[in-house]
Please model this.
Amino acid sequence: MTTPTRTPDEERVMRAYKAGQHLTAEESNTRTRIRRREQRAWRATRDPQHIARECHRAHPDGTKPCPGCGRTLPLEHFAAAPHELDGLHFRCTTCHPPRGADH
Model:
């Protein structure tokens, strides 16, 4: 995986965080931005086998709860979403229809 390039200020913030130093609110926001950017880059590089392993690890019984309708459904009822940790959209296809579908 290619880690996004950090600015010198971002490197300083990360060194301070790893050393256990207190961060100001602005430094804390910078650290959060770095972490989110690096997570997005990592997720974009995952292969389908890795996504499938993560999905099985997160949902060993083959079901997933939908916060939209409150039902626990088989994984086939969730659209693929490689950017999510488990590789599935967080709402079922009934609650979150595909783009272009009539609402």
Observations:
- Helices lie at 8-18, 25-44, 48-58.
